[in-house]
Amino acid sequence: MGRATPLRDAHRALGARMVDFAGWELPLHYGSQVSEHHAVRAACGVFDVSHLALTEVSGRGARAFLRRLLANDVDRLGERVAGLYACLLEESGCVVDDLIAYRLANDHYRVVSNAATARPVRAQMRGVARAFPVRLEAQEGHVTLAVQGPQAMELGTAAAGSVIGPRYAAALAALKAFNATNEQGILSARTGYTGEDGFEIYLGAAMGRSFWQALIDAGATPCGLGARDTLRMEAGFCLYGQDMDATVTPLHCGLKWTVAMEPPQRNFVGRRALEAVWEDRQLPSFRGLVLKGRGILRAGQKVLTPAGEGRVTSGGYSPTMSASIGLARLPRGRYAECEVEIRGAGVSCAVVKPPFVRRNRILVDSE
Amino acid sequence: MSEIPTELKFTSEHEWVRVEDDGALVVGITDYAQEQLGDLVFVETPEAGASFVAGDVCAVVESVKAASDIYAPVAGDVVSVNEALQDSPELISDDPYGAGWLFRMTPEDPAEWEDLLDSDQYGELLES
Fold it and tell me: Residue B82 has what DSSP assignment?
């Protein structure tokens, strides 16, 4: 199999079903994906996401470089240690990847991008970096953990106290939503991909193994890629390679809010292409679907609406709702119902605004 | 993995077939199959009365991961289906060779099931 994270043996010892994901050997689940999903909504789950690509950006041109590279503006972070969700675009406006840029200090940022797109992302970063006094450094061999759920901060703070130290535990406990800390050179951010409270932490291999074990010992449920996918879908978060790719712009996948057109003089890669379609009323809209008939929504299924044809981009089973849900690119229009073609037959769906679930509460009304 | 029941016949598509006293065949998916699929969330069973030839897609089992076609192991008519799976697809994971059965059929040729794999042959298939 492919590349291993420092936690591979720990996953195997827990009985994980390992799969190949973008060249990495990662846990799909540890027995039941649905139980792992419920554990995150009800208590606390921990995910090994060490496959995510880390790139350190430093030097006095770091800020200007990222303002040119990304469709979102790192100046929105101000002087805080915090993360910014952003798309990296081609000049055509199409999405090369979605990522998080953390501001660690003046002239020091960390970019966390998807494993499957690491190569094109780094190629584009190197290209843009030629015009700036900036140093790019890919990080290898680290452990990245996502600790998620209503008990994540409590269990995480305890693990930080025993593995890192009381000072770090205090900094973690004090984090506000979407903020980060780089106390003792260890980054944590109160963010996630599940729609629950929690944090993501970036550690060296040895400390990462101890932190993982401390969380498991404290009762956190180890969770695999399967639960990560159903949780993010319920939370209405896009997945690169499914809901968006290099054939669409952020405006095609509900990510217009991540594009900073102000200030107008900030010339980021892809800006001109997006300006041309910014007010386009023909652009598709990105919506949620709740299946009312029988079956399961899957990516690629055809959607029939009163305004024309669309496509399911992510689909599956929602354990929280006990129903099948999906994300879809649909023709613009006012309609609350559509049909999805499943094995040749039209099945009725409610059209809703994602997210479906936040903080273990169902937010959509599919009746 | 659990034992492969010796009284059953199997297909290379990981289905099992049991012969009832009246000659009817009961069909389900094996323990190995359900374990590969992961949590099951939806089952589409055939209509009672439907006729199939061997190899026809006659049902669909969907897990959190993907949809999998179920093929008719031999030619015949469906006489009844496991209605309980509509609300409880997890019966297949909990008891694949019992409460998780899919459908019952009358074979066109009562001898045809004998050509299916026996438990030793199926065991070899899993190891290969």
Answer: -
In a domain, B126, yes or no: no
Q: What pLDDT is attached to residue A2?
A: 85
**Among A278, A260, A203, A313, which Cα is nearest to A85's?**
A260
Is the Cβ pair B38, A316 closer than 8 Å?
no
| A177, A80 Cβ separation under 8 angstroms | no
Measured between CB atoms, which of B44, B60, B64 is closest to A317? B64
Q: What is the mean pLDDT of chain A?
A: 97
B53 touching chain A per CB within 8 A: no
Q: Where are the alpha helices (H) located in B40-108, listed in sequence order?
A: 91-94
Do the domain assignments include residue B116?
A: no
In terms of C-beta density within 10 A (0-12 exposed, 13-18 middle, 19 or more buried), how is residue A126 classed? exposed
Choose among A189, A60, A57, A50: nearest CA to A110: A57
**Count of C-beta atoms within a 10 Å radius of residue B114:** 11
Go through the domains of chain A in sequence order and give each one's CATH number. 3-50+141-234 (3.30.1360.120), 284-367 (2.40.30.110)
Spatial distance between the Cα atoms of B37 and B66, rounded to a whole number of angstroms: 8
Predicted local distance difference test score (pLDDT) of residue A58: 98
CA-CA distance, A39 to A43, in Å (whole number)? 5
How many other CB atoms are found less than 10 A from the CB of residue A313? 22
The count of residues in chain A is 367
Whether B86 maps to a domain, the answer reads: yes
- Which residues face A136 on adjacent strands? A57
> Into how many domains does chain B fold?
1
> Is the Cβ pair B41, A296 closer than 8 Å?
yes
Cα dihedral across residues B30, A324, A281, A256: positive or negative: negative
Angstroms from B16 CA to nearest CA on chain A: 23
Q: What is the pLDDT of residues B74-114, one digit of tens each?
A: 999 999 999 999 999 999 999 999 999 999 999 999 899 89
What is the phi/psi pair of residue A121, to 5°? -65, -45
Task: Find tokens 């998080």 and name the residue.
Answer: A100
CA distance A28 to A318: 17
CATH number of the domain residue B52 falls in: 2.40.50.100
Structure ipTM = 0.88
Three-state SS letters, A59-109:
CCCHHHHHHHHECCCHHHHCCCCEEEEEEEECCCCCEEEEEEEEEEECCEE
> CA-to-CA distance for A183 and A171, rounded, in angstroms?
7
Residue A163 vs residues A156, A212, A221, A315, A321: alpha-carbon distances, Å: 10, 10, 18, 39, 37
Which ranges of A235-298 would DSSP assign to H, the alpha helix?
271-277
Q: Does B75 touch chain A (CB under 8 A)?
A: no
